[in-house]
Write a structure and sequence with these properties.
The chain has 437 residues and is α/β, with parallel strands linked by helices. The protein folds into three domains: 2-201, 3-Layer(aba) Sandwich (Rossmann fold), CATH 3.40.50; 211-297, NAD(P)-binding Rossmann-like Domain (Rossmann fold, 3-Layer(aba) Sandwich), CATH 3.40.50.720; 299-433, NAD(P)-binding Rossmann-like Domain (Rossmann fold). It is 43% helix and 13% strand. It contains 17 helices and 14 strands. The longest helix has 32 residues, at 203-234. The N and C termini lie far apart (54 Å).
Length: 437
């Protein structure tokens, strides 16, 4: 079976390489010729555990190819996935120009049946626009060629995307024909051998499912952050509260961890897009507006705790920041709490030392020489007046606290992810601040 993936970003490259891993012949396409050249030479544009091995293995096996042209393969494949970017516009709505450009190219060059699948996160109604765009281009050419459009939203976690794709807990597919359903079943069957977990629905429902899922997860995070902030005021411990409510089977324990806000390319963008979609249809998403507000305020919480400790006298202080990516196991700093925190530290005239396992270059492209980039986690804490934990990389879990205390000016820790033992650190002489503890 031959397929193509338009877009070699996070979703497109993971999708293409994992399909190839299961024996499908895949061509990954991108207009960025430099990126395609690098991929052909084994250079992966993103940090994602396990992805480089799969790309290398399947490229070598001849199942995974890279190209800059949809035209070259459009009439030699059965399925084309659209996995291009849909960045937010100023009003928060998703920019669909890249999606519709792919649809336009398909309509201008199609000569035989094809199934076009939207894999990008797109607002409800986008697949219909894709179909209309292809129909329009075919009409201009006076061609009558059958094709189908489907929606297949991704539910990949950055940092564990390869495993998520190869061992999915469910696959959501929106179709409007039996032919499209059979093709998608055939394509995903290798992933479903042990347990068939494909959920078929109409296309609009599939598009909405993606936004609804991310919105629910983001809501749980913001809810717990709101509870954590109240715990700080009332003397309660959010970790105990989390255990108490998470044991309720109606609630469950996942996504109940408080911290310093969510980020990344999905939750912030998708919530903004859904809020905007609702506005366009005359509806106000009151809960999601609150979720977004709570999260934006939560990104300031680490700085606020730091500022309060030093009574507003931060000018000239040296602050160490551990963790820059929006979550562990990725170099993605889009909407990351670290970026907002660093901006506030710079505005407060602090000297900032940062360290992250994977995201140093990404942050350097934003701040340049305005901050210092430590060679390792210990180096970042030298002569520091405080240490801020923003991203909970595994290497930060059990540091040498004795050495850290010795080399810091003042032993202050702001734990933005609640991963440290408060009692242990206070006994050692640290001033410790968690979230909601």
């Amino acid at each position: 079976m031959k397929i193509a993936i338009a877009g070699t970003g996070y979703v497109g490259l993971v999708t293409g390489s994992c399909f190839a891993e299961m024996g499908t012949d895949v061509t990954c396409i991108d207009v960025d010729s430099k990126k395609i050249k690098n991929l052909k030479n084994g250079i992966i544009p993103i940090f994602e555990p396990g992805l480089d091995e799969i790309v290398e293995r399947n490229t070598r096996a001849g199942r995974l190819h890279f190209s800059t042209s949809i035209v070259d393969c459009i009439n030699d494949i059965e399925v084309l996935f659209i996995a291009v970017g849909t960045p937010p516009q100023e009003d928060g709505s998703a920019d669909l120009q890249h999606v519709l450009n792919v649809a336009k190219t398909i309509g201008q060059n199609l000569e035989k049946y094809i199934l076009v699948v939207t894999k990008s996160t797109v607002p409800v109604g986008t697949s219909q626009k894709v179909q209309q765009t292809i129909d329009y281009e075919l009409k201009i050419r006076n061609k009558h060629i059958e094709f189908d459009v489907a929606s297949n939203p991704e539910f990949l976690k950055e940092g564990d995307a390869v495993n998520d794709f190869l061992k999915p807990d469910r696959i959501v597919v929106g179709v409007n024909s039996e032919r499209a359903k059979k093709l998608m079943t055939k394509l995903y069957n290798p992933f479903m051998i042990n347990n068939f977990r494909m959920i078929f629905m109409n296309i609009a429902s599939a598009e909405m499912t993606k936004y609804a899922a991310n919105s629910m997860l983001a809501t749980r995070i913001s809810f717990m952050n709101d509870i954590a902030n109240l715990c700080d005021l009332l003397g309660a411990n959010v970790n105990m509260v989390r255990q108490g409510i998470g044991s309720d089977l109606r609630i469950g324990s996942k996504f109940l961890y408080s911290g310093c806000g969510y980020g990344g390319s999905c939750f912030p963008k998708d919530i903004k897009a859904l809020i905007q979609t609702a506005k366009e249809h005359g509806y106000n998403m009151q809960i999601l507006n609150a979720v977004e507000y709570v999260n934006e305020e939560q990104k300031k919480i680490v700085f606020k705790k730091l500022d309060k400790h030093f009574n507003g006298n931060l000018a000239g202080k040296t602050i160490a920041v551990w963790g820059l990516s929006f979550k562990p196991q990725t170099d993605d700093v889009r909407e990351a709490t670290s970026i907002e925190t660093i901006k506030m530290l710079i505005d407060a005239k602090c000297k900032v030392n940062v360290y992250d396992f994977a995201a140093m270059q990404e942050v350097k492209s934003i701040f340049g020489d305005k901050i210092n980039y430590a060679e390792n986690m210990m180096d970042a804490t030298k002569d520091a007046d405080a240490l801020l934990l923003i991203t909970e990389w595994k290497e930060f879990r059990l540091p040498n606290w004795e050495q850290i205390k010795t080399q810091m000016k003042t032993p202050v820790i702001i734990d933005g992810r609640n991963i440290y033992n408060r009692e242990q650190l206070t006994e050692m002489g640290f001033s410790y601040y968690g979230i909601g503890q």
